[in-house]
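S.,

Sequence below, as promised.
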Amino acid sequence: MRKSERLQDMLQYINEKKQFNLKDLMEEYGISRSTAIRDVQALEMLGMPIYAEHGRNGKYVVLDNRIISPITFTANELYAIYFAMLTLSGYKETPFEQEINSLEETFRSVLPSGIKDRVKKMKDSVKLDTPSHSNEAPYLKEILKGIMEEKVYSISYRKEEIRSMTVQFVTLQAKFGQWYAKVYNMNSNRIQTVRCDKIVQLKESEENQPQELQYLLSLLKTYHPQPGATTFTVEVTERGKDLYDKESYPSMSLEKTGNTFTISGYYNADEEAFIAEYFMHFGKSILSIQPSVLRVAIQGKLKSLITYMDRLN
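The prediction came back faster than expected:
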């Protein structure tokens, strides 16, 4: 292995260990003690934040700072990174708005002219839009940090009224321009979904012991259906399939049945009005609905809308 390759690999090796001694490097890379010392000195010159702890059990420690050691990318990897930045630009808010802006400045300052020209063409030609809305979600960065560091938070959440919850964030996802988080509610010991723009206050809490993220992720497969949940099947036309593709939810699935499509799923007792309003937008693309209680709920929504429109005149 050439020295440049060894140093590049050593950057990753040391970053993962956080602390090491010369013997670790000698055994890992089959090098002499003097070569290991020179390599550590070379890494320090590259900006690796290393300091030595002397004594009988002396070792090197990597400082836990926010500067990442240099990484080499291929041209296609750089294009992929920039394309990912463009996808985020379609959102009004992201967890790393300031960092994305500074990253773009870095691209402009360090990229070779040929790659820089191609990146500019990509920016001018690729347009990735998401639905526009005026909702503010100011805690996205804190939510993502809480997921990665397995922290517990006290939050105030606006629904019909302001509610207080103690939660651990499990996932963060975007859907139709809105940001949603799945949280483990420490008060009810269950997973639930919250809209991030509805969180009006967030504060780290040390009163509850956090759960391991992998355990919380395992709960997502079974968290949603509640006792007494209603299953449904709605047969739709090709247009209904297009509407489903534009907006659907994890509790639903779509299957092709001959020349038509079947949407199957379930809803909990307190979600019937929401599901009825969802299918109300399918209009004449609906061919059949089971169970009948869902059809009645949709009819009720339509009658309510007609009554409301009549009052406008």
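The longest strand covers residues 162-175.

Coffee later?
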